[in-house]
């Protein structure tokens, strides 16, 4: 689809929007008793209810036509066939191979990669089993009780999110911790409760050059060397990286280095050996189930017609709100305390992927691209920011996530949780009209004047959109399917917006400038030449640092 044409099609969605401007979801539900059946779908054991959106069949047909015209199916095939769809880095995008459960070859640059993928997974499995069984121990012969993953971005967010989410599968005697921030407080606060004799570090970095990770890794190395002696280092470190030479140089034993490949983007790497701390925490078998769940979603994405394809539907509804309605943020609200890092994980997955403003051809896009993704678990969010979602001036499309079965036998907690999540999407959709408010206040016995003053504050505009994702239980398989669902959603949106979802040049400038500023912050060079603000801040720091 040519640039002008794409812009025209996206603009044409505005006409569709105008058609629905005066029709509320409340009315649409009243007119169509089958709206839930019409606008819900299942895939990989996940139910998506998208009926509480400002859509009708004509809108969905237009959106599906847009996906076809934008070449979603062709691009999906190109990705599967190992074409270098990450054009600015000249790389294939093959994270699906990492979780592929079938027996067909998967080729990248003419080579079947499945042998290498499975060999690394086998090595991860063997190492994990040996650490968990106590076969592999620390330098002094003590069993490991704590595994500290040192990484940032994709080398942290995925494993950290999954480990929290799969807490019911963890063991009390082997805990996983995550250190990412270059702020020394992070590693300090994690290590202060740990015993070096029983602590294993995993240095996770695709490039093995990321400053935060290498700074933390060096501090961890010094902690081990200072307390247990330099010779203890090889027994307390493992690494996950595509840069095997740099890992070896750091002093990590060859058999404790787990590789992956440049066709795996950092934010798509949780399925690779980057998942090692997950396997340590929940056992390799559960990690394997997490991969299998993602593969189930891959099959759904690759084999289901666009009209019933969960990631495609979610992507298109996102495009609809972003481009036809101008909604700029998207909230992800899991009703699951253990999913507390899910939104943070999705922020990288979505915002680093589609936070772009040039097309594949390097021209400025003529439409909005990736939204701001944010969220927190319910019900906590209800008592914090939901006020704005219900009555603020911005409309914020939401995804609600909820399991039918909790892991705990603690009635009445889960019934209450479910009642809350259903209530929120219902309240957002229905709202409360002025007439309803007035009737309510009258019933409470308020005077006319009081009702007049209070009513406007109590009106809910309603007609606020949401998806609900329902699944039986948050198992490793379901979590894998959920993460893959969002990955494919981001892919589809990237194709429609015609951006490269697989590079991240936007993080480079800050890195470069930080490097240049470091000698000035240390007081080794003058700050001259920087703008007045930077010089002023530098001056304040140098005057107050001691
Ligand atoms: O933030 C930029 C980024 O390159 C991410 O894409 C990546 O996940 C993160 O840094 C960490 O990179 P690495 O795994 O190479 O240390």
From TrEMBL:
Keywords: Cytoplasm, Gluconeogenesis, Glycolysis, Isomerase
Record's keyword annotation contains Isomerase: yes
Active site feature: 352 (proton donor), 383, 511
Pfam families: PGI
Cellular-component GO terms for this entry: cytosol
Xref: Gene3D superfamilies: 1.10.1390.10, Glucose-6-phosphate isomerase like protein, domain 1
Gene Ontology biological process: gluconeogenesis; glucose 6-phosphate metabolic process; glycolytic process
InterPro entries per the UniProt record, alphabetical: G6P_Isomerase, G6P_Isomerase_C, Phosphoglucose_isomerase_CS, SIS_dom_sf, SIS_PGI_1, SIS_PGI_2
Top EC group: isomerase
EC numbers: 5.3.1.9
Purpose: Catalyzes the reversible isomerization of glucose-6-phosphate to fructose-6-phosphate.
UniProt-listed PANTHER family: GLUCOSE-6-PHOSPHATE ISOMERASE
The protein's name: Glucose-6-phosphate isomerase
Gene (UniProt): pgi
């Amino acid at each position: 689809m040519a640039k002008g044409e794409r812009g025209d099609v996206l603009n044409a969605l505005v006409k569709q929007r105008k058609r629905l401007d005066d029709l509320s979801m409340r009315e649409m539900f009243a007119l169509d008793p089958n709206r839930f059946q019409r606008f819900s779908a299942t895939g990989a054991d996940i139910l998506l209810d998208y009926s509480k959106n400002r859509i009708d069949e004509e809108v969905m047909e237009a959106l599906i036509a847009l996906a076809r015209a934008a070449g979603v199916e062709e691009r999906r095939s190109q990705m599967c066939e190992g074409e270098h769809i990450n054009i600015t880095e000249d790389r294939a995008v093959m994270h699906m191979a990492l979780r592929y459960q079938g027996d067909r070859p998967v080729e990248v640059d003419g080579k079947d990669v499945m042998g290498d993928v499975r060999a690394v997974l086998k090595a991860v499995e063997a190492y994990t089993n040996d650490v968990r069984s106590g076969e592999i121990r620390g330098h002094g012969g003590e069993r490991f009780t704590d595994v500290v993953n040192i990484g940032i971005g994709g080398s942290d967010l995925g494993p950290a999110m999954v480990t929290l989410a799969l807490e019911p599968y963890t063991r009390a005697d082997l805990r996983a911790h995550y250190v990412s921030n270059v702020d020394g407080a992070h590693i300090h606060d994690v290590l202060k409760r740990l015993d070096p004799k029983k602590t294993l570090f995993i240095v996770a970095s695709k490039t093995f050059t990321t400053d935060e990770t290498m700074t933390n890794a060096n501090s961890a190395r010094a902690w081990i060397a200072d307390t247990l002696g330099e010779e203890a280092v090889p027994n307390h470190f493992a690494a996950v990286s595509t840069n095997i030479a740099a890992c070896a140089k750091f002093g990590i034993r060859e058999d404790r280095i787990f590789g992956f490949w440049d066709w795996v983007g950092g934010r798509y790497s949780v399925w690779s050996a980057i998942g090692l701390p997950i396997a340590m925490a929940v056992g390799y078998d559960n990690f394997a189930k997490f991969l299998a769940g993602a593969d189930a979603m891959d099959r759904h994405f690759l084999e289901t017609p666009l009209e019933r394809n969960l990631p495609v539907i979610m992507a298109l509804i996102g495009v609809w709100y972003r481009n036809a309605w101008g909604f700029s943020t998207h909230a992800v609200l899991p009703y699951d305390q253990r999913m507390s890092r899910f939104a943070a994980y999705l922020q990288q997955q979505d915002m680093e992927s589609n936070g772009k403003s040039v097309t594949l051809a390097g021209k400025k896009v003529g439409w909005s691209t990736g939204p701001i993704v944010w969220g927190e678990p319910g019900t906590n969010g209800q008592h914090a920011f939901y006020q704005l979602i219900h009555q603020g001036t911005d409309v914020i499309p939401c995804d609600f996530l909820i399991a039918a079965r909790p892991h705990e036998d603690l009635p009445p907690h889960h019934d209450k949780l479910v009642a809350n999540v259903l209530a929120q999407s219902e309240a957002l959709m229905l709202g409360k009209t002025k007439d309803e408010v007035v009737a309510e206040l009258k019933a409470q016995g308020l005077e006319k004047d009081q009702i007049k003053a209070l009513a406007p504050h109590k009106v809910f505009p309603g007609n606020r959109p949401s998806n609900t994702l329902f699944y039986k239980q948050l198992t490793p398989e379901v979590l894998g399917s959920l993460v893959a669902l969002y990955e494919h959603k981001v892919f589809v949106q990237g194709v429609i917006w015609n951006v490269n979802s697989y590079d991240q040049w936007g993080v480079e400038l800050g890195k470069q400038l930080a490097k240049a500023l470091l000698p000035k912050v240390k007081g080794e060079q003058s700050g001259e030449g920087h703008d007045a603000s930077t010089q002023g801040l530098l001056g304040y720091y140098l005057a107050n640092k001691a």
